[in-house]
Each structure stands twice: as C-alpha cells, then as structure tokens.
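re: ur msg from earlier - yeah i can do the KE4 complex, just paste it... oh wait u already did. ok heres what im feeding in:
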Amino acid sequence: MTGRSDSLFARAREVIPGGVNSPVRAFRAVGGEPPFVVRGEGAYLWDADGTRFIDYFGSWGPMILGHAFPPVVEAIQQAAARSASFGASTQAEGDLAELVQAAYPSIEKMRFVSSGTEATMSAIRVARAFTNRKYIVKFEGCYHGHADGLLVKAGSGVATFGIPGSAGVPEEAAHLTLALPFNDVAAVETALAGQSIACIIVEPVVGNAGCIPPAPGYLEALRALTAKHGALLIFDEVMTGFRVAFGGAQELYGICPDLTTLGKILGGGLPCGAFGGRADIMDQLAPLGPVYQAGTLSGNPLAMAAGIATVGYLREHRAAVYAKLEKLSAAVADGVAAAGDRAGVPLTTNRVGAMFTWFFNSAPVTDFATAAQSDTGHFAAFHQAILNAGVWLPPSQFEAAFMSTAHTDEDIAQTIDAASQAFTSIAQGN
Ligand code: KE4
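and the outut:
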C-alpha cells in the first residue's frame, strides 16, 4: 500500500470501526491494507493510487454484468431524476416482482427489502408464524446476514442448540437455532425427529465458507425431510440467485423450496433484497396477516430500476450470458488449479457456474470442517502476491470468487499468469 489508499484508510479508521463498513473489507484475513476504490468499469476496479485490478469479488456478487454496465447506469440516472425515494408504491415494484416470479416459479408472492439480512430474518419470522414453531436449523459455514438468531455456532452435540457466534447475541436467541454440518443428511434427520422445527435455512450452494456444492441428493433430502416433519425449507439464494443459473440453485437442482431469499444481483449493485414463496405463507404478512415486517426504503425506485435493468438484461440474453459465464469461469478455475499443480501447491477447486473457490487444501472440501483445514497462511500469501500483480480476489479463503460477463479471455490469461508466479513464490517458501 502506498499513497492515497493508505492515507484514506488511516482517515477512515478514525471515524469508522476498523475503517470499513463491513469487516471482510479490512483484509484482516489476508494481511496488508485494502486499496480504496475510486472507480469500476467492466471487469476492473481502480484504486486511489491509480492501480487497475481485475475484479473477482464483484461487490460480493451483484456485479455479474460488470461495473458501470451502461443500461444499469442509465436506468439509475433516469430514476434518480424523478427523485430517489417516495415511501409510496410505484409500478417498478410490480415490474421487478414479475421478472423475479418468471425466474423463480416457487415465488408466488414476494416482498422487497434493502439487504439480504433483512430478507432472511423476515423469511424466518414468517416461517415461525406460519408453523407456530420457534426453533430453526442452519448449517455451519453458511452465512445468512447478521440477525441475532443467525450468528450462531454449533452447540456441543450435533443436535444440541446453538451458542452465540458473536458478542451481543443473547444465548436465548442462539438457543433457538441448531447449527448442523452441511451435506450431512443424518444430522438433519436427527434434528427434525428430535425437535419441532419451524424451518431449515440453507445456502443451496454454500458460498460463505468458500464455494461448497451440495452432495448429490442432499437438497432432495432436505426437501423430503422438511415436508415430512412440517418444517419449511428456505433457500437462501442471496448469493446463488441469478448467479449459478438465471433461476438460481432451485432451477439448477430442480428443488422447490417453500420460501426463497434473494439479494445482491437482484438490485444490480443497489441496496436490495427480497423474500418470497408460497402465497399461503406470505399472506401472513401485514397488512393481510399478523406478521409485522416493514422498511423505509423497501422497493426503493433506484434499486428497482437497477434490478429491472439487470434482471431484464439477464433474461433477454440468458443463453449467451450463462454460456459465457460458464466458459470464463471454467477457464480461470481450471487454469489457476493447473498452475498450482505445476508449482506443487496442493489445491482443491470447487465451482458451481460463475462462483468458485481455490482451497489451499489437498483433500475434498465438502463442509465447513474440511474447508477449515485449508492452509489460510498460503491463501493469504497467494492473495497478496496476486493482488500485487493486479488481480483482486475476495480477501478470505472462506469466500467465493465471482465471474462477470465483462471479463475477457485476456483477463483470464493474465490471472492465470499472475497465479502461476504467486504459486512459484509460495512453493519457494517466500
Ligand atoms: P447482506 O445483508 O450483506 O446484503 O446479505 C447477507 C447475506 C445473506 N445470505 C447470503 C447467502 C449472503 O452471502 C449474504 C452476504 N454475503 C456476504 C459475502 N459473503 C456479504 C459481504 C459482506 O458481508 O461484506
């Protein structure tokens, strides 16, 4: 770090805890100081020192069409000229809702909110009301935002209730959540047989432990077991929605959840989330039913405009977009993996469509426990070396990398070359 970024970071730390508005941005897991971004265009970010980076975190998922995609920029500009917010209903909310329904047939009714956190906490509240049950199940390594009941670590035994995963989370809140191993059907059977569970919330493809695909038959088992025990199945597709397929993981794996949460790509980079599903469940919400949920900026016209432009473009160009994302993602994932092999650096590469992770691990990564065996020191060294070569990966071994339609074959070649040099440096013990 030199120049303006480091002075901007120093200033930020004076007024913002850690100098960041979200912890992962502080680079604590990889060392060094984060570049401060001044501009993005296409697949690239530029920092305050004028350095250009190929961007593989894409604002943590939203920027699937690349930064400053002209149709999205124009839509936001036009909406802003009509005022940024009304706090009243607009046509755009129905327009985007219908676009979502066309992609997610399981979503009979939905409500927009301003973040993925709001979406998941609201979905859980409506699930609890609908089932008249209070206990929920999540999975270790899955992140669903920072609502109290979702910041929970696994208890001592597989089927024991959670313990707080953060200071400030009362044990009473954690106690209502079971945190189970991902990809372990027996653990789910034990939990559902032993307790009256309102819902299971799952990242159908885990992104928040790094990318971990569901084992064959796992999602089908969650669907069958929740139906058998009267629990609702919530697919948290905040990350996978429009990412692994236009219709998300539920399209890719052919599963119909009771509720779905969306975010990230849905808002095209603006603050936007949504939760939705069966109408008989969603009609529990005020003003129709007894479940309260609200938001000043829910359905915000700028976010709706950005979402309509983004989701509309993905729908209009669906075949070409997802074919390109698959080609570019396979090329970079496999190319970097091959470079690691050549350098003798053990890697496990997990990928589902345009989300992927290189685990510094010689064993298969199938859940958080195996992901946690990865060599985070080697990851940190890799991250720093490849960043210095102009390639910006998500700054944690336990995050997924993302491809956009703006990346080019040249970007992929540059990335593989930078990775090869970084692996050589690691293999030489530098
Ligand atoms: P937000 O409240 O950050 O919009 O969404 C929370 C959320 C919910 N569900 C899933 C599957 C998510 O991945 C997220 C947020 N993802 C992280 C990235 N791992 C956001 C980045 C950050 O926290 O800064």
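cool cool. The mean pLDDT is 96. ping me if u need the other ligands too
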